[in-house]
Structure formats: C-alpha cells, structure tokens
C-alpha cells in the first residue's frame, strides 16, 4: 500500500487499511522526502477529525518505521 493524495474515497488510506491485516508487533514503514513531508502519529479522535495540531509523535527523517 502506498500513500498518495486520494483521487476518490475508494482510493483512500482507509480503503487500503481495510484490505490489509495488521497484527500487534507488525511494523509500518514510510519512505518519503523528509525535506518536504512528515509522518504524524495521532489519536483515533484526531485522525477522525483531521486534527494535526497536537500529534503524539512527528517524524521527519524520510524513512520512518512505526511498530503497530
């Protein structure tokens, strides 16, 4: 599954996550340009409301791996 700005609801990250099965201990990895982008870890509530003002964690290294 790759991240990109979705062109439709069926192309969203939610749709991709529905198709994948993650287990405790799995890792999610993102490779990106750390000069232009970042990965934010947020609460479920913040995700649902698109609130990025107080992330749990912010990663800017360009090669982020987070354990699920």
Automatic annotation (TrEMBL):
GO molecular function: electron transfer activity
Entry superkingdom: Eukaryota
A Pfam family this chain is assigned to: Cu_bind_like
UniProt cross-references to InterPro entries, sorted A to Z: Cupredoxin (IPR008972), Phytocyanin_dom (IPR003245)
Span of domain Phytocyanin: 1-68
Coiled-coil portions: none
Protein name: Phytocyanin domain-containing protein
Organism this protein belongs to: Populus alba x Populus x berolinensis
